[in-house]
Design brief:
Order of helices and strands: HEHHHEEEEEHHHH
Strand order of the largest sheet: 2-5-1-6
Number of domains: 1
Number of strands: 6
Largest sheet: 4 strands, mixed
Distance between the termini: 56 Å
Structural class: alpha+beta
Length: 221
């Protein structure tokens, strides 16, 4: 009788362990699906700018910011009427030579002779806050400008919707830019990147960061 009870108990333990494993697996799959869906929608909604300095010296970092300002000024001129990300990318792609020349001119005007590489691609980005909008880490389409050896610190922003100036001036995202993002995202997704007060929303944001950081690390290895 005792042996029979032991068999039953062991069976219950194994059954409980199996249920726990299936529950954990279900939670993981659900979280992974949620993160992938949100990350894809965010990535599909923004076009970013990535400027990499020649080095981390004070002079090279200051030069990076001057190149940034020149490029942003030009981008705002040619893309001010862009209505979506695809149009902004198309316009930028058609003016890559101009972007390069503007960067080279700025570099030369400041007494340097660094070369510049300009390209559009899909690159990894860390979590970044623009005023009251935060974008989680992940892969985003971007215009990348590499100055010289491109071994210095990076500078990131969002070219579409236009959030770049937020880092430079007031720290307030324009309502028109928010409206554009709202139109491209679900209500929950927009709340996710704009609400810093709700603990539940912040947990989801951290979850996305965790999964995306693992993905970026795995890709690099």
């Amino acid at each position: 009788m005792k042996s029979f009870l032991n068999i039953i108990c062991k069976g219950k333990v194994k059954y409980s362990i199996l249920l726990l494993f299936l529950l954990i697996l279900y939670i993981f799959i659900s979280a992974f699906s949620y993160v992938n869906a949100v990350s894809k929608d965010l990535s599909n909604s923004v076009f970013r700018l990535h400027v990499i300095a020649n080095s981390d010296t004070k002079e090279d970092q200051e030069l990076k910011l001057k190149v940034r300002d020149s490029v942003l000024s030009y981008m705002n001129t040619i893309c001010k009427n862009a209505t979506d990300k695809e149009e902004a990318i198309s316009i930028a792609n058609a003016h890559l030579d101009e972007f390069k020349q503007i960067a080279l001119n700025t570099i030369q005007e400041n007494g340097y002779d660094y070369n510049v590489t300009v390209k559009i691609g899909n690159f990894s980005f860390p979590t970044k806050t623009y005023g009251d909008i935060s974008l989680p880490s992940g892969y985003y389409d971007a215009l990348r400008i590499e100055i010289g050896e491109a071994k210095g610190q990076n500078w990131w922003c969002v070219m579409f919707p236009p959030l770049c100036f937020v880092d430079v001036s007031s720290g307030i995202v324009p309502e028109e830019s928010k409206k554009t993002m709202k139109n491209d995202l679900s209500e929950e997704e927009f709340t996710l990147i704009s609400n810093r007060e709700d603990s539940g929303i912040q947990f989801k944001f951290k979850l996305i960061e965790l999964f995306q950081n693992v993905k970026v690390t795995t890709a690099k290895n």
